[in-house]
Amino acid sequence: MSARATRHPAPILSARDIVNRFGRQEVHDRVSLDVIPGEIVGIVGGSGSGKSVLLKTMTGLHRPDSGEVLIDGKPIGSIGAAEKASLIGVLFQQGALFSSLSVAQNVMLPMREHTDLPAKEQESIAAMKLELAGLTGDSAIKVPSQLSGGMVKRAALARALALDPKILFLDEPTSDLDPLTAGGIDSLIAKLNESLGLTVVIVTHDLTTLFTICRRVAVLVDGKITVDTVDRLMRSDQPWIHAFLHGPRARGALSARRQKHGNG
Amino acid sequence: MQQPTAQLSASTLAIHGEGDRLALDGVLDIRTLSQASKALRRWLDKRRGGRARRALDLDKLSGLDTTGALFLWRLGEQGVELTGVREEHQALFGLIGGLEHQPLRKPASLPRWRQLVIHLGKAADEAWHDTYDVIAFVGRATNALGYALAHPRYLRLPSISRQIAETGIDALPIIGLMAIMISVVIGYQGVAQLRPYGGEEFTINLVAVSMLREMGVLITAIMVAGRSGSAFAAEIGVMKAREEIDALNVMGMDAMNVLVVPRLIGLIITLPLLTFFSDIMGLLGGAMISQSLLHVSPVQYVDRVHHALAGGDLAVGLIKAPIFGFLIAVIGCMHGLRVKGSAASVGHETTRAVVAAIFVVIVLDALFSVLFEKLGL
Ligand SMILES: Nc1ncnc2c1ncn2[C@@H]1O[C@H](COP(=O)(O)OP(=O)(O)O)[C@@H](O)[C@H]1O
Ligand SMILES: [Mg+2]
């Protein structure tokens, strides 16, 4: 499936032959995906095609009916809780912020649990993460129920980054955001990827995200996965992929891609 | 459960050099930060008087994350010269250096005594609002209930039958068991207390009358308050927190009609039935006690109970049941609708619903006892 994986011998994350069923519905039919350290992989597919379930499987939250997930060569089930916390960060589709904690406390929670940094230090780190994610000022002391949908996403992103994980999983990070902010999140992800070598797996419908920052894209159609670069997927004749990448919405995104690649 | 930090400190950092020039060697990330910050703070404090500019060499720094970069950037701000920054870390410093670094805003903090005064004031104000809310809610609920009963088209029968199944049928085993236990307890105490007077036969009267008049309805109501009052509050509370109530509203459906009324009707129907069931089970417990302690056979027992009970005893117990049912449902739903957003708030309101429901049931039962006594029932 992914020819690349053979060229790069050590994937940081590798899902092998994942099968997921809910009752009679087969969501994944032997899905495999290898992610190399430092790359940004996009996962796309129609609504209900199993993107979130795949993400849950790769983060060890959902046990697949068969198949295995390896992180750094180790089965995800065998990785200890603290180590897992420092390896992966997850931005859930609904944010999943702790509703009884303020935004800043949400970001500091993993630090409080897993490090012995003094409170002052944690606060300044939390402020930095929140600013990176684009939240400043009063929003830090608000509780999740007082936030807008987009702010929830950013706070959740800041929390996912709290321990500077090696792999960042994002479930539709830009879906609740206005285009400008979405662009900001895209460029933040790209910057973190460049400066930290952060590996990122993004579930998204946002074509601009796909075209501008994703090195490879995994497409889920009918329980099967196709992984390739955007350029080669553009030439695919699989009906769903063709429709997705050549629809009316794709054009604007394509021009964004040309702009970016033109600049550098 | 788990060792919090043990596994996290896999990456290592060493600090070399002396005097005004130090060098970092290894990985500076969130795991090694506290070590680095302790060592370097000492160094900074000691050197405060020194003339020479302090320098930190980063050439051997193999790993750096945003947290480490923030720390180094702040050192830079404090006048430490950072030398030998690797090419691959430049972008990260650029990213961190480009931020505004405003301190985290904190909620305004007040001295303790003022917090206490404010807390007291708030509690008093809340108590007043609570009372008002309960009365207003009872009024609105009664209104909605009356309307639904007058317009059977608005009765949501599937919803009501679900409530009856969940609050009634599912509760049968536990309530039956409780009733038997309570009558056994009363029976034992009765025999022990009445035997010195030679009146242990009257234990049967004691058990039968007290189960039917008071204990049957009381334990049923308390059990239902704990089971269903809490379920109402939590269920409606989570719906409120997830904006499902708002969704109902914009679709032109009132939470009062859709959620509260079926629960009210459900409990008004089930509580008397459960009470009756618990009375029967209580009498059954009485039969068991009579058999084993007094050697009264079941047939004799039925005869004795028949003589012991006046016509009103069963009615006195049952008449209270629908009223308790109404109040338990109203209190549960009201607290559910008062939830605000957070999971903690759901827990808080659920607790309050159960406590308030049990309190009201017991107070009201005491008042009923006095009332029935005065009426000679
Ligand atoms: N816990 C579950 N139980 C049953 N079916 C589920 C469960 N979670 C997801 N599904 C089903 O799996 C499919 C994929 O869901 P999901 O991964 O959430 O879709 P999406 O690609 O839009 O994120 C959907 O058809 C959904 O109904
Ligand atoms: Mg999804």
Structural notes for this entry:
The complex is a heterodimer of chains A (264) and B (377). Chain A has 264 residues and is an alpha/beta fold. Helix content of chain A is 42%, strand content 23%. Chain A has helices at residues 3-7, 51-58, 81-87, 103-114, 119-132, 149-160, 179-196, 207-213, 230-234, 239-246, 248-263; strands at residues 13-22, 25-35, 40-45, 66-71, 74-75, 88-91, 167-171, 199-203, 216-221, 224-228. The two termini of chain A are 30 Å apart. Chain B has helices at 33-46, 66-77, 87-97, 112-150, 157-167, 172-194, 203-241, 244-250, 255-294, 298-308, 312-337, 343-375; strands at residues 13-18, 21-28, 55-64, 81-83. Chain B is elongated and about 105 Å long. The A-B interface holds A 80-83, 85-86, 98-100, 104, 111, 113-118, 121, 123-132, 136-138, 140-141, 143-146, 161, 163-164, 191-192, 194-196 and B 2-8, 10, 29-31, 33-34, 37, 65-67, 70, 74, 89, 91-92, 94-96, 99-107, 241, 340-345. The structure holds adenosine-5'-diphosphate (ADP) and magnesium ion.
Strand content of chain B: 5-15%
How many alpha or pi helices of chain A? 11
* Span between termini of chain B: 60 Å
Tally of helical segments of chain B: 12
Strand order of the largest sheet of chain B: 1-2-3-4
Identify the overall geometry of chain A.
globular
Lateral strand order in the biggest sheet of chain A: 6-7-8-3-9-10
- The poorly predicted ranges of chain A are 1-6
Distance between the termini of chain A: 30 Å
What Rg of chain A is obtained from the alpha carbons, in whole angstroms?
Answer: 18 Å
Q: How helical, in percent, are the residues of chain B?
A: over 70%
Residues in helix, % of chain A: 40-55%
List the helices and strands and how they pair.
The complex is a heterodimer of chains A (264) and B (377).
Chain A lengths: L2 H5 L5 E10 L2 E11 L4 E6 L5 H8 L7 E6 L2 E2 L5 H7 E4 L11 H12 L4 H14 L16 H12 L6 E5 L7 H18 L2 E5 L3 H7 L2 E6 L2 E5 L1 H5 L4 H8 L1 H16 L1
Parallel strand pairs in A: 3-8, 3-9, 6-7, 7-8
Antiparallel strand pairs in A: 1-2, 1-4, 4-5, 9-10
Helix pairs in contact in A: 4-5, 4-6, 5-6, 7-8, 8-11
Chain B lengths: L12 E6 L2 E8 L4 H14 L8 E10 L1 H12 L3 E3 L3 H11 L14 H39 L6 H11 L4 H23 L8 H39 L2 H7 L4 H40 L3 H11 L3 H26 L5 H33 L2
Parallel strand pairs in B: 2-3, 3-4
Antiparallel strand pairs in B: 1-2
The complex binds adenosine-5'-diphosphate and magnesium ion (MG).
The site of magnesium ion has 4 residues of chain A, from helix 2.
